[in-house]
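Obj: model holo form, ligand = zinc ion.
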Amino acid sequence: MRTAIISDIHGNLEALEAVLASIRSEGMDRIICLGDIVGYGADPGPCIDLVRSACAFAVLGNHDAAAVDISLAERFSSHAAAAIIWTGTKLSAEHLQYLRGLPLLHAESDRLYVHASPLEPALWNYVFDSIDAREALTEVDRGVCFIGHTHTPALFRDRKAAGPLRREESAIINVGSVGQPRDGAPEASYGTFDDDAWSYRNVRVPYDIDTAAKKIRESGLPSRLADRLFVGR
Ligand code: ZN
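Output (holo structure tokens):
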């Protein structure tokens, strides 16, 4: 089975639509979402609707959690907090109920899906480097743990591992961000995983950044959130 994994959409409808079109053209069997459907972007509601209809399942992100319970935005930067307050006013009771129902983590036999570090997922710890990953890998006995949260695609393996990814080893794969990449490349990011071949691929998709940025500016969200889309920072 071939699975597409998306994360950190952040209310960017233009990016999400481009990614879903790319996934369709790749002929994937299913789509899984690792959370942060909302926050930062101008279309939180339409993004929830699309994720709900397109994805087999989704897990909760820290911005999704804060949209439901604003007290969780305490540790957010000022622009992230401003965006999540704005987002809360744009969501229907049904949208909020959907976000409230998302689990922190979803496990399959040899795969784990979680927004941030699998080590105490509710703390939303980042896995930035191999030191963070080594700690997080203690939660992954075998197989692959798919994460998002840093908005930067990455693959972390055991120190001794080399060559193609193997079923017997444990690995952490960050699929990057659909709606707000931060690795210096503005193209939307997602991952594909083939569990017969046990192979992973990161895919980048250009999208209509002008429109996404214009909507952010016109909605009264902090303009920095529009500017950063063009540079992927
Ligand atoms: Zn995020």
